[in-house]
Design brief:
By secondary structure, this protein is mainly α. It has one domain. About 75% of the residues lie in helices and about 0% in strands. The chain is globular, with a radius of gyration of 20 Å. One of its GO terms (cellular component) is membrane.
């Protein structure tokens, strides 16, 4: 079956000549490898689109309530750094955008949340310092003459424990407060679904044990946050020590 050129070209770019020929022209739906690739691409694009909006509910919740109470600043600092490194590493490795695109959007959204936390804590000096660090980090990671391919690979290795550790302060904060505070349920559940789907897309499209290990471990901690969200669903209790 021949599709119009404006449909065929992006389809070939998405799944490659071999799978396009097998699935579209020959209609070989029994081609397991190509069917897995198509599923991975669809999931990957879905994750990227979802990632562009994943933390929007969290941002809206902070602004609408005029508070970032219950959110761990340390968690977001570490998570932002891990995402930024992941974006730089995947870009340098020329991995398909569908396998890491959500990290780009999540980095931007995390930066917004960080600035909002500092804003509601009324810390203008920290707000300025955070902005300066963000700009500097973006420049350094994007400049190959400063951070070469070997260095970025090691940074990606370091980003795995950094990303994992980033979730621990939030898990601890939830536990101490007996509440998830201003933490968005949509963001938490979206994280869980996205991390599970990302394991599949990484196994299917990216032959990189470093990245896969990171997603596997991250999913385990996302599961703890998801469980806390369910357990503390009706709890409004917040520890005075954790208030802004």
């Amino acid at each position: 079956m021949q599709l119009p050129g404006f449909v065929q070209e992006p389809a070939v770019q998405l799944i490659g000549d071999k799978c396009y020929t097998s699935l579209v022209e020959q209609f070989n739906v029994g081609d397991v490898d190509c069917m897995k690739l198509v599923l991975s691409k669809v999931l990957g694009l879905g994750i990227v689109v979802g990632g562009s909006l994943l933390k929007f509910p969290q941002i809206v919740k902070i602004i609408s309530n005029g508070s970032a109470q219950g959110l761990s600043f340390e968690s977001y600092v570490l998570e932002t750094a891990a995402y930024a490194i992941s974006v730089a590493y995947n870009y340098r490795q020329q991995n398909p955008f569908s396998t890491f695109g959500e990290s780009v959007f999540l980095t931007i959204q995390d930066i917004i949340i960080l600035l909002l936390i500092l804003n509601y804590r009324k810390s203008p000096r920290l707000l300025f310092a955070a902005g300066l660090i963000i700009v500097t980090l973006s420049y350094v990671l994007s400049n190959a003459s400063i951070v070469n391919d070997t260095m970025i690979a090691w940074l990606q290795v370091a980003a795995i424990p950094t990303g994992l550790v980033s979730k621990i302060p939030q898990i601890y904060t939830n536990y101490v407060n007996g509440s998830t505070g201003q933490l968005s349920a949509l963001a938490v559940f979206g994280y869980m679904a996205g991390s599970l789907a990302r394991i599949f897309t990484t196994i299917t499209e990216v032959d990189d044990l470093i990245i896969l290990t990171g997603f596997l471990l991250s999913t385990a901690l996302n599961a703890i946050l998801t469980l806390q969200m369910i357990i503390y669903w009706h709890s409004d209790k917040l520890s005075p020590k954790k208030e802004e």
